[in-house]
Input
Amino acid sequence: MEAGEKFNLNLRNLFINTPKNFSKTEIKYKNFRKYTYSEFFERIQGLAHGLESIGVKRGDVVAVIDWDTDKYLEAYFAVPMMGAVLHTVNIRYPPEIIYYTMNHAEDKYVILRDEFLPIIEKNAQLFDFIKGWIVYSDEGKEINSKLKPLYYYDDIVKKNHYEFPDLDENTTATIFYTSGTTGFPKGVTFTHRKLVMHTLALSNAVQYPPLNLTRDHTFMILVPMFHVHSWGIPFSAILNGNKYVLPGRYEVGTILELLKNENVKFSAMVPSILYMILSAPNLESYKEYLNGWKIVIGGAALPRGLAMRARSLGIITIGAYGLSETAPLLTIATYNDEIQNADPEIKFNFSITTGIPVPMVNLRVVDQNMNDVPSDGKSVGEIIVRAPWLTTGYYKDPNKTEELWKGGWMHTGDLAVINPNGYISIVDREKDAVKSGGEFIPSLVLENAISELKGVGEVAVVGKSDEKWGERPVAFIVKTSNINEKDVIEHLNKYVEVGRIQKWWIPDQIIFVESIPKTSTGKSDKKQLKEHLLR
Output
């Protein structure tokens, strides 16, 4: 490199010393396989060599359809580092949407787990744009398929040296699609530079209390690898030399056994996964392994009641926030100087909020005229952001891109308040807010209050059309004990008396359900709940 020549912020350069510095650190996939970092980086060289040998070129889009496995982790590194584009396909989409996103992204090759073969084979004629299918089985069993041309993952991954190119940092590294709750999913892309900057900011943000993450913490991330880079944690964990545990498909029994056997100390997940774990019938037998487990919660607001239940078991929960469009991290609820020495209950209250912006995030909460709202914990505005890793826009959708970046700031559509101590608290999604009598009822605040009633498992609040008020709130509740509508109303009235909520926020209707429908990313599907009210 000549003096003054640009140093590219790409994934190759980010991880250039990792296999040497952490050569003995382990990556473990369930009880199937484990590798040292040194072996892992040899394997990603082998995968890149194998992909190139079957025709993958720079700029080609390589899709992955899989659970959270070692094979997926290898693709996370090998595909973008060789100059191709990684498409993390949302396996929870219905087949027609999987086809839509793969066609829209212009996928050329697909790495495919055997159990997803029937879905693809059933619609094989639609996928004539795919140049190669790379399939594998956990058990190494023979796979017969009518998909052509067909390659076997283990056959193409040989122990071959591969020199990863020093790619321009503005080379596209990844593409994936939003959850599609308001229409067809929208594609977002991220360059190498954006992933590097996000990784560095994330690595910094998790060092502070109450997380205090170090090399000694074993990671098991329960955020699907198709969902916003698994929140970017695989890149950060491998950069910093953490033992990394992959659970495959999310099954509570497997998760608890890995927690116990692999000494897992850090995880990230959406609230519904935490609820699923804490509802396990045999949870008591794993109690000693839960104590001290640190969990970052994102994707949806962490209900206070769920956080309190986790705390009673010695689990430390902390809120974080981001979007598909933001790679995703924007804020995390670590302790700043304002609450570092506060009363434990105050610290707990703020640790489950949206949090404070991480390094390099310029975040504002603004009114409709783009003026900043006061930091008084009461004035509601929309979160808008700038950061060096945000997507530049929606793939092949200039109109939506212009809307996203109106005024030179990314518009999140999330309504929030800023507390005097700097902590942000989201009160609603703009599209989910219940507008009653010309005023917003913050559904997240209401859900939080209901969640604290003993016997409430999960809760979601949506608006129902009302001739007089425009909309009125309806609460859907999954109960864990014998509670009724009167219990909920009495509980909320107590919060009215102490000023936590207003009287007119109390739902007009309480509906008890067996389960809350979820989106493809594990959030409460409020669109489905609203449709339920119309039946």
User: Anything to note?
Assistant: The longest strand covers residues 456-466. The chain has a mean pLDDT of 93.
